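Customer ticket, subject: "Can you confirm the structure for DUF4440 domain-containing protein?"

Message body: Hello, I'm evaluating your service for our small team and ran a test protein. I'd like someone to confirm that this is what the system normally returns, since I don't have a reference to compare against.
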Amino acid sequence: MALIIPATKERDDDGWADYVEPIVLTPARAADLAPGNDDPAAAVVGFYAALMRGDDLTGQLLWPDDNIIIDKLETLRGWTFHRLEVLAVRLRGQSKATIRVAVEIEVDGKRDGGTDEVKLQRDGDGGPWRIERPPT
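Agent reply: Thanks for trying us out. I re-ran your input and got the following:
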């Protein structure tokens, strides 16, 4: 299934640009979604889709062998993701971005939700977008 990245509104004073319509990901939609990593939002959706499916995540990460990331992935794999919404993007030059997300998760049988930020960086000059550090 193809992922369509919606347009963004004007940037606010802090550099955030809200998507006109949030990108919504559920486990059912994640089953056959491969959005690629040519756009920061697509890379974030691809990361969470792989997480929802239980796929290998190392290709989504900038430094997959970093001990902090390994610990974060272990934590994330213990959570059940029910919903992800990609809300806004803040670009930092040509090679860095932050994506604001809202998540609904279940941890130890308890459902919870909230917003967080996912930092991304291009892998090389103009290369694919990769997750710097997944939020936990």
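A couple of notes from the result: The chain has one domain: 17-133. Residues 40-53 form the longest helix (14 residues). Feel free to reply with more questions.
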